[in-house]
Amino acid sequence: MLGRRYFIRMAGVLAGLALVGTSHKANAADTGSTPGPPNILLILTDDQGWSQVSKEMHPDFPGSRSGYLSTPNMDRLANEGMRFTSGYSPAPWCTPTRRSVLCGISAARTGGMNESKWVPAAHMTIPKALKQANPTYHCAHFGKWGEQLRSSPEDCGYDASDGQTGNVTGGMEKKQRPFHIVDDPKRTGTVTERAIQFMRKEAKAGNPFFVQVSYYAVHLRVELLETTLKKYKEKGQPDRAYSPAWAGMLEELDHGVGNLLKALDDLVIADNTYVVFMSDNGGRGLMPGGGKSRLPPNHPLSGAKGSLLEGGIRVPFFIRGPGVRPASYCHAPVVGYDLLPTFYDLAGGKKPLPSDVDGGNIRPLFANPDKGIVKRPLDSLIFHHPGKLMSAIRQDDHKLFVIWDKSGKIKSRALHNVQADPAEKQNLSASDPRLADKLQEILVDYLAKVDPEKPTQKEK
Question: Which of 124, 217, 438, 453 is 20 to 30 A away from residue 327, measured at CA?
Fold first, then answer.
């Protein structure tokens, strides 16, 4: 019956009552007491590209938004918190990113696609870290878990979950039609409602909580309500090579985000809750029903899902919460595997984390986005995609992109200042070979240390 209730609610809202919400500050309780351990809500979307929002991701690049898309609640979250203009997913694919975020470890170390032998439950995980910091934390995961993760959510420390779900759970088919009309598109309503019920229960009990809401949207297949499809057909042609139906699916996802934010306001816990939003990888390069004559879906970035070019790994990345400067931008590079050590610190963790945790605590950036320092074991972000014979390293403003041959030797490399040139149009490796050599050495040394899947092993 939940699908029916969601249909009614969505139809009414999307007919003209779109939820934008008021500032979370307006509903905060002024009790004068010291707040307890903070709650943490992690929202993970699926296949949402960096520029696939309705407000620009970077203030200097007007093209880092879409004038056709409507994401008022994602925009609200970013406006009330911080946009990380260089926020990255750990990998250009779903499962490696989810494994990496869960364990705070780079995808180069945890493995590539589904055949990875990495067992998350044998390592530190976000729920384990939070409970190590403070045993009173209650943790839940709702939505898409991932493909063949070799551990269940409960094995990894979660107290509640939807189980070992995957793409098929949220709707998937090999032959992609332009759209599908269903009552509970991509299970967005169901997943949102489950998360709200958990937050309501824990808030009533006075327990600090961590909830990860892993939406199935906007992964293909395209599902949406009839009313939403009609709305977007009336808007005309999109400004990128996605379809009106896909844009409608994104707006319905945005409505789910809005309901989560509203729930925090209604429970009067928004001011003591960190909300983190990111996508599991960049947007797809091709979409059913999309017009190939228009700008690419990930414009202005190059590449798409499956690639280590910016379009495959640079994603929307927002954080709102106590001490986070509102309406701010941070240009420092951050990545999904930074979340575990960050959450651990926010929860009051003091003991050292395991030595294989690659992420760094990004909390110093919250109040000082320009001067805050993130300390990681390696002062770089590492990306490795053996199935596509490619690796990359991001350090400060620069990124080195490497292509391997099948024998494991470097075939080509490109150096880009991705802060000034996110489209990766200018290859600086010839004009600045010393920097290219330096980054290459760091990358090769790290890969040798972690013994990743070799480039000759092709992913399915």
Answer: 217
Q: Cα(225)–Cα(237) distance, rounded to whole angstroms?
A: 19
CB 98 within 8 A of CB 149: yes
Please provide the average confidence, as pLDDT, over all residues in the chain: 91
**Token pair of 158 as six digits:** 């979660």
Inside any domain, residue 30: no
Cβ partners under 8 Å of residue 343, min gap 6: 40, 126, 129, 130, 210, 274
List b or e across 27-40, with b for residues whose CB sees 16 or more CB atoms inside 10 angstroms. Answer: beeeeeeeeebbbb
**Half-sphere exposure (Cβ direction) of 57: Cα atoms closer than 13 Å:** 29
- In this prediction the pTM is 0.92
Looking at the domain assignment, is residue 18 inside a domain?
Answer: no
Residue at a domain's end among 312, 344, 367: 367
**Cα 161 to Cα 139: distance, rounded to the nearest angstrom:** 9
Least confident among 105-114, 335-344, 365-374? 105-114
Q: What is the DSSP letter of 336?
A: G
Query: Which ranges in 104-225 belong to alpha helices (H)?
Result: 107-110, 126-133, 188-205
According to DSSP, the residues that pair with 102 across neighbouring strands are none
Per DSSP, the three-state class of 286 is coil
Boundary of a domain, candidates 367, 402, 424: 367
Instruction: Look at residues 413, 422, 358, 421 and name the one whose alpha carbon lies nearest to residue 389.
Output: 413
> CB under 8 Å to 416, separation ≥6 — which residues?
398, 399, 401, 424, 426, 427, 428
CB 280, CB 335: distance < 8 Å: no
Q: CA-to-CA distance for 399 and 417, rounded, in angstroms?
A: 6
The label of the residue with tokens 């972690």 reads 450
Q: What is d(CA 245, CA 251) in angstroms, rounded to the nearest whole number?
A: 10
Q: How do 398-404 and 410-417 pair as beta strands? A: antiparallel
> Which residue do the tokens 């005309």 mark?
236
**40: helix, strand or coil:** strand
361 and 427 housed in the same domain: no
Same domain, 82 and 139: yes
Q: Quote the domain boundaries for residue 411.
A: 381-450
Cα four-point dihedral sign 266, 270, 272, 275? positive
- Alpha-carbon torsion (432, 435, 437, 439), positive or negative: negative
pLDDT, one tens digit per residue, over 84-126 is 999 999 999 999 999 999 999 999 998 876 557 889 999 999 9
Judge if 322 and 446 occupy the same domain.
no
